[in-house]
Each structure stands twice: as C-alpha cells, then as structure tokens.
Amino acid sequence: MKNRKIWLTIAAFLSVLFLATGCANQKKDTTKPEKKHTIVMGVTGGQYNDLFDKAVAPILEKEGYKIKRVNFSQFMLSNTALGEGNIDVNVAQHTAYMRIFNRDKKTDLVPLVATPSVPCSLYSSKYYHKSDLKNGMTIGIPQDPSNAARAYALLADAGWIKVNKNVKSTELAAKDVTENPHQLVIKEMDSNTIPHVLADLDFEVIPGSVVQSAKIEKKIHLIQQEKLTKDLEIVAAVRKENENKDWAKAIKRAYQSKEFKDYMKKHNEDHQWVMPK
What we know:
- The longest helix is centred in the N-terminal third of the chain and has 29 residues, at 2-30.
- The protein is α/β, with parallel strands linked by helices.
- The chain has 8 helices and 12 strands.
- The strands form 3 sheets. The protein has a 5-stranded mixed sheet with strand order 2-1-3-12-4, sandwiched between helices.
- 38% of the residues lie in helices and 22% in strands.
- The protein has helices spanning 2-30, 47-62, 75-84, 95-105, 145-157, 208-214, 246-256, 258-266, and strands at residues 38-43, 66-71, 89-94, 109-114, 120-124, 138-142, 162-163, 177-179, 185-189, 203-207, 221-225, 234-239.
- Residues 1-24 form the signal peptide.
- Its main location: membrane.
- It is a lipid-anchor.
- Keywords: Lipoprotein, Membrane, Palmitate, Signal.
C-alpha cells in the first residue's frame, strides 16, 4: 500500500510537469513570427512595375521574401485576380480608381501604401502652348471613369471648359461639363489607344504611365500637368483581409524606407516622379 501511494505521488508530479511543459511550448508556438511568404504580384507592365522590380523587390528579397510575378494583358484583369485572391498585390492604380472598381465589382481592395506617381497631363503632338487652341479642335481623353474624371478636371483647370462645381473632381463625367465655349470635340477612348492616333487629335490628355509605356515622350509637347491630389496617388493595393499580414507590412516598409527614398533621389533627375504627400 505504501509503495502504491509513492508511485501515485510520482505519477501526479510527472503529470503536472508534463502539462506545464506542454503549456509553455504551446505559448511559445503562438508567439512564433509569421512564416516567410512568396508574394504573388500582378503585373501589367509600365513604370510602376519597373520601379517595384528595381527598388522595392531587392529590399523584400533581403528580408527573405520571394516575388512571383503573374502577367496580365489588362489592368482590370489584374484587379479582378486580386479581388478573387489569386494574387497578393498590384501596383498601378490610384485610390479614386480603386473606389470605383470596388463599387462596381463588389471587391474589398484597400490601399496599402502610396507610391511615387507620374501625373496625367495635357499634351499635343502638333502645338506647343495653350494659346494655340482654336474653336472646334479635337481632344482625346481616357474613357475609364477615373481617368476621364482627371481629364475633365484638367481641361477645366486649363480654362478650356467649365464643369459642375458640385461634383468632385475625381467623379467628373461628360454630363458634368456645363460650358464648352470653344466647341471642343472631346473624344473618350482607351488610354492605350491615344498614343496611336496622335495624328487625328489636336490635343490629348494621357496618363504618364501610358506615355512612358508607349515611348512617345519625344513626339508630344507638355501643355499642362494635373495637380496631383491624394486620391490620385498610385498605391500598392491588397485585399483588406491581408493589409496587416507580415508580408504586406514588409511591402509598406520597403516603399517608406530610406533605401527606397535614396534610390528615388538618384533616379528622378527630370522630376518625372511625384513623391507621396
């Protein structure tokens, strides 16, 4: 009987010790950092993706992340894939565009971090100054809602048209033009089409990314640059459920790092890039 009590006491002690050790290990496991992640990025070409590859990806790779790139022929396809969870991030849209996309496609994309942006501007391949404008001239502008709004705001800022003051500049559309004193023919078309029809236009409003992708800088003259607002800054976009993941925070840190800012100082001699406010 005495020996049985001794063995029961030892067994109870070992049980307590086992439970304590198990709890400690369990607590330790829950504090482990998130496992390193392969970041799947949607790519549609252009300088925003190029900037990511040259200045951001190296920072992430130093931290142990791998970047897998998935190419899309159109940015909307990239955004659709992001909304469906098939990719983790893309870098080529501004918040105003994202807001409209979320509304129309019922997605929950959010801006992770603002990145350097290239403004949308008023150009001409035929003329050099605003004063060259004549009645009845043709102006090509983007047709997607967010960039069309930018174009109407830019034309209003140039004094060529007047728009409804009760409508936000990021939501302007053709119906909001209240005065067109020069009887301008404003043609909405796909942004990527504009560089190919310069001969048919007198002036054109083109996003900076399209100008660079089409390599038409030497064919056009800058007439007026848009005033870049917070809503029009290019952002790295993710789904809302991912914005606090370690890999997402790493992307944000990379864009805000001293290393990235130093890179921009060395590679922005012509002040093409506008830094986030």
